[in-house]
Specification:
Blueprint: H1 14-20, H2 35-47, E1 57-62, H3 65-71, H4 83-87, E2 91-98, H5 103-115, H6 122-142, H7 146-167, E3 171-175, H8 180-186, E4 194-203, H9 221-224
Antiparallel strand pairs: 1-2, 2-4, 3-4
Helix pairs in contact: 2-7, 5-6
The chain binds flavin mononucleotide.
Flavin mononucleotide binds next to strand 3.
Length: about 230
Amino acid sequence: MNSETEQIETTVNIKEVLNWRYTTKAFDTSKKISAENVENIKALLQLSPSSINSQPWHFIIAETEEGKKRLAKGTEGFFSFNEPKVTGASHVVLFCSKTEIDETFLNDINEKEDQDGRYAKEEFKEQSLGAKNLFTNIHKYDLKDAQHWMEKQVYLNIGNFLLGVAALGIDAVPMEGIDMKALDEEFGLREKGYTALVMVGLGYRAEDDFNATLPKSRLTEEEIFTII
Ligand SMILES: Cc1cc2nc3c(=O)[nH]c(=O)nc-3n(C[C@H](O)[C@H](O)[C@H](O)COP(=O)(O)O)c2cc1C
């Protein structure tokens, strides 16, 4: 076995991580995420799985006060309850989704996979492109939910991300309560073929965050599981 295929040894206690993480409503503004963890954050975003490896996303990462101020344009007015979670965070990630998916994009992904050494034979590469087009066309034409399908991939990334940052000991707050239109305008996203979806504030919990001491609340196992 080479290092890539070896079983990884993991010491993460998943239940502990799941119970430690919570939606952080107030950050300790004096604490910043290290450069090493910023790299880990980027790896989480880049390496998330997605259907047909479509990766229909773009991420705006704010690490400066200026950057956070720009993202806070998405928390004005009705969404001002989320503003301190953006301005007080160490870093903020805006998850954006592609608005359209076409053959050129699918071909680009396939070429990248080829460059990355995924196709031993030309026919495998062609088969893969065929499958990408087939699944995309199901969503474009049969289900007519291509944009929604891409957003699902971005949400999957968000789920992966929330668990991943918690495993790094980083607190987070996912926010759907944002002004997507204002953010699209601020970053010219629509012109570039993207739209804002969810923002995640990152950092370290403030000592007086009321939400840190509240117990977790979830539906019961009886309600959510059918074990057969
Ligand atoms: C996609 C998504 C969007 C959310 N949007 C917001 C938000 O705008 N503001 C906020 O304070 N919390 C937001 N939350 C946090 C949820 O309310 C929270 O995850 C849920 O109550 C479970 O609590 P926990 O995360 O502390 O375990 C969001 C969570 C998710 C997953």
